[in-house]
User: Which sequence fits this backbone?
C-alpha cells in the first residue's frame, strides 16, 4: 500500500470522517458549528440551534473553494435564559468561553485558521471573548452568526421556517402556538430577572404559526450567503467577528 496515497486523494470535507494521515501536511481551515441545547417551545427540538448552525456551516463549507474542513458541532452553549424548561442544558458563558479557547488552542496546532459559525444569540459574549483571546495569542480565528434581517427572536417564524426547510420531520406543527411577539428590547428587563419563562410561559418569542418551508429555504440561503461572503473576504491576520 502506497503510504502517500491518502494524501493524494480528494481533500476530505469533514473532520469527523478524516484520518490523521489525510490531514498530515495539509494545514486546513476549519469551520465549526456552535449551537445550544435549549427549549424551543412545544413544536421544535432542543437541538434547533445546533441543527441550524450545522446546516449553515455545511452549506458554507460546500460553497467555499479550497481546503475547508467541517468539524462536528459543539452542541452545548450559554442558555441560562431558558433554565426552568425541561430539556435545557446550559454550560454558561464562562465554561463555553474556556471550551472555545481550549478548542482553538488544540485545533490551532494543525489547522491554519478556524471560524466558528454561531447559531445561538446567548453564545455571543463567550465566542467573541474566546476568539479575541485566540487572536491575541497569534491564532487566525474568527466567528460569524446565522442571522438575517427582520428575524424574530426565538422559536418563532424564522427558526421554525428554517427547520421546515432543513429538518421538516422534527417540526410539530400540530403543537405550534404564537408566543410573545413584543420587540426583544422591550422584553429584556423582565427577561434579565426571570428568563424567557417570565415573558413567555410557552417558551416562544415570535410567531411560528406563519412559518413555511419556502420561507425557510430563502432565509437559510441568506444565512449561508452572508457567512460565506464574509469568510471569503476574511484576510489572514484580520478577524474577530466577520461583519
Ligand atoms: Zn434557537
Assistant:
Amino acid at each position: 500500500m502506497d503510504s502517500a496515497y491518502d494524501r493524494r486523494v480528494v481533500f476530505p470535507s469533514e473532520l469527523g470522517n478524516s484520518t490523521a494521515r489525510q490531514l498530515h501536511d495539509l494545514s486546513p481551515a476549519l469551520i465549526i458549528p456552535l449551537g445550544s441545547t435549549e427549549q424551543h417551545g412545544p413544536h421544535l427540538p432542543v437541538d434547533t440551534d445546533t441543527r441550524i448552525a450545522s446546516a449553515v456551516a455545511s452549506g458554507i463549507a460546500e460553497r467555499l473553494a479550497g481546503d475547508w474542513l467541517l468539524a462536528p458541532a459543539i452542541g452545548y452553549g450559554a442558555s441560562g435564559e431558558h433554565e426552568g424548561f425541561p430539556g435545557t442544558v446550559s454550560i454558561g458563558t464562562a465554561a463555553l468561553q474556556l471550551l472555545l479557547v481550549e478548542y482553538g488552542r488544540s485545533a490551532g496546532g494543525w489547522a491554519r485558521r478556524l471560524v466558528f459559525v454561531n447559531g445561538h444569540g446567548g453564545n455571543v459574549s463567550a465566542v467573541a471573548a474566546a476568539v479575541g483571546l485566540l487572536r491575541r495569542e497569534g491564532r487566525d480565528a474568527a466567528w460569524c452568526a446565522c442571522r438575517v434581517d427582520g428575524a424574530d427572536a426565538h422559536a418563532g417564524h424564522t427558526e421554525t421556517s428554517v427547520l421546515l426547510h432543513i429538518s421538516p420531520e422534527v417540526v410539530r406543527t400540530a403543537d405550534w402556538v404564537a408566543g410573545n411577539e413584543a420587540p426583544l428590547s422591550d422584553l429584556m428587563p423582565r427577561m434579565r430577572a426571570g428568563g424567557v419563562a417570565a415573558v413567555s410561559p410557552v417558551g416562544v418569542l415570535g410567531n411560528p404559526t406563519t412559518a413555511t418551508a419556502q420561507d425557510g429555504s430563502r432565509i437559510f440561503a441568506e444565512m449561508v450567503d452572508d457567512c460565506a461572503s464574509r469568510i471569503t473576504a476574511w484576510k489572514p491576520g484580520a478577524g474577530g467577528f466577520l461583519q
In short: The beta strands are 29-34, 68-70, 113-118, 141-145, 240-241. Residues 40, 48-49, 120, 154, 159 surround zinc ion (CB under 6 Å). The helical segments are 5-8, 20-23, 48-63, 92-107, 124-136, 157-166, 184-194, 213-232. The CA atoms of residues 89 and 239 lie 30 Å apart.
